[in-house]
Write a structure and sequence with these properties.
This protein is α+β, with helices and mostly antiparallel strands. It has one domain: Orthogonal Bundle (Arc Repressor Mutant, subunit A), CATH 1.10.10.10. Helices cover 57% and strands 13% of the residues. The protein is built from five helices and three strands. Strands 1-3-2 form a three-stranded antiparallel sheet. α2 packs across α4 and α3 packs across α4. The longest helix has 13 residues. The radius of gyration is 13 Å and the shape is globular. The N and C termini lie far apart (32 Å).
Length: 91
């Protein structure tokens, strides 16, 4: 049987999104163009190091990307596959 999708990529995405906090982060980043770790920590009411650990997992799974904005890193969801998956949650 031939599969025409990258199963490994989707497995990594779903594994990263399987945690409620990471799913919340990714979903909110999809709705908001960019956000830094300090703002996420405030909004989620969890410690900044914990948010950073979740962001690292999401970044390694290519769910999010980060770019330097001054002395902060701003994160966003720009993976079309992830956007498609997360968009289904809003329906």
């Amino acid at each position: 049987m031939e599969i025409d999708i990258d199963i490994e990529e989707y497995t990594a995405i779903f594994k990263a999104l399987a945690h409620p906090t990471r799913l919340t982060i990714a979903y909110n980043l999809m709705k908001k163009p960019e956000c830094n770790v300090n703002r996420m920590s405030e909004c989620l009411n969890i410690p900044q190091p914990t948010v950073s650990q979740h962001l690292s997992i999401l970044k390694n799974a290519k769910v999010i990307t980060g770019k330097r904005c001054g002395n902060q890193i701003c994160y966003k969801v720009d993976n079309k596959k992830v956007i498609s998956i997360l968009s289904q949650l809003a329906k």
